[in-house]
Amino acid sequence: MKKKYQNGFFLFGAVLLALMLWQLDYREVWAGLQRAGYWFFAVVALWAGLYVFNTFTWYIILRSGTEKPVPFWWLYKITISGFALNYATPGGLMGGEPYRIMSLSPRVGAECASASVILFVMTHIFSHFWFWLLSVVLFLLTQTITLPLGIMLAAVTAFCLLGIWFFMKGYRKGLAVRAMNVLKHIPFVKRWAAKYIENNREQLDDIDRQIAALHQQSPRIFAMALGSELTCRILSALEIFFILLVLYPSVNYMHCILILAFTTLFANLLFFLPLQMGGREGGFYMSVKGMGLTASDGIFVALIVRFRELIWTAIGLLLIKIENTTHNEPQPTATDKTTI
C-alpha cells in the first residue's frame, strides 16, 4: 500500500478513536478496572487468540485461490487493523475492508484481493446468523419460555433464516454486483455507485465468479472457513465469562453464550453507530436482565468490553504504521490471473 494511503487510514482511525476516548468517564473506567483486577488482562489477551481464528478464515480462503505466498502473521496484522477501522467507523465495513483490499492487492492482484475480502466478510457475517440461530435452540433448551419470549424467539429465528438464505444465494451467484446495485438506490452514493458499476462491470462479474467458485468447487474450504468463524463466536463468550467470574464464581458458560448472542444481535441492528456506541451497552443491559442478573452487572460487563475494544482499536491503528518489509514487491501484471 502507498504510504499516503497508509497514513490516511491511520489518521482517519486515530481521529475517531480520539473522539471516543474523549467521551469516556475515566473515573468510572478506573473503578471498573480495579474491580475486574487481573481478569481484565485475561479479557484483553483472549482477543489476541480470537483474531487468530479470523486470520485463519481469511488465510484458507486465500490459499484456495492463489499460490502466491501471503505470510500468515502479516495477514494477522492486517486483520487486526481492519477490525480496528471497522470498530471506529460508522457503518462498520466502511473502513476495514478497503484497507484490507489495498494492503493485499500488491501481493495477489486487485481482483483476487477484493474477492477474498468479500468472501471473508460474507463468512464472518454468515457465521453470526448461524450463531444467533443456534443460540435460539440453546435458549429453548435451558430457559423458561413465556409468550413474549416465544414471539421474540420466533422473530429472531425468521430473521436468521432469512439471512442464511440471502448469503447462500450470494455464495452461489456472487454478491459484488448485487451489493453495488443496492448502493444505486441509496441517497448520496447512488450516482457514484452507478458510475462505478458502469466502469467496472467486467471486474465485478469476475469477482462474483470467484466468490461462487469457493462454494461450488471447494466445499471443504467453505466448511472450514465457516467452522473457524463459528468457533470464534462461541469462544468469544469467554470474555463475558471472565468478567462475570469477578461477580459470580459459579457463572454458567451457557448463559454467557446467550448474553453474547443477544447483545451482538442488538448491537448489529445499530451497525451505523461507531463502535456501536449505546447499542452494545443496551444489549448487555437487556440480556443480563433476561438471565436474572442485575442492571449494574450489565453496566459493568459493558464497561470492561468497551475498554477492551478501545485498546484493540488502538493496537490495530498502531499496526497500520508498522511498515511491511516486503512492500516493494512487484505488482501483479494484467495477465497474472488468480482465482478464489
Question: Would you write up a description of this structure?
Answer:
There is one protein chain. With 340 residues, this protein is mainly alpha-helical. Helix content is 78%, strand content 0%. Helix 4 runs antiparallel to helix 5, helix 5 packs across helix 6 (110-142) and helix 8 (176-183) packs antiparallel against helix 9 (190-217).
Features of the shown structure:
340 residues; mainly alpha
Overall pLDDT confidence? 78
Relative helix content: over 70%
Number of strands: 0
Helix and strand succession?
Answer: HHHHHHHHHHHHHH
Strand proportion: under 5%
Roughly how many Å is the radius of gyration? 21 Å
**Largest pleated sheet:** none
What is the general shape? globular
Our count of helices gives 14
| pLDDT < 50 runs, ≥5 residues | 272-276, 325-339
Distance between the termini: 21 Å
By helix and strand content, what is the structural category? mainly alpha
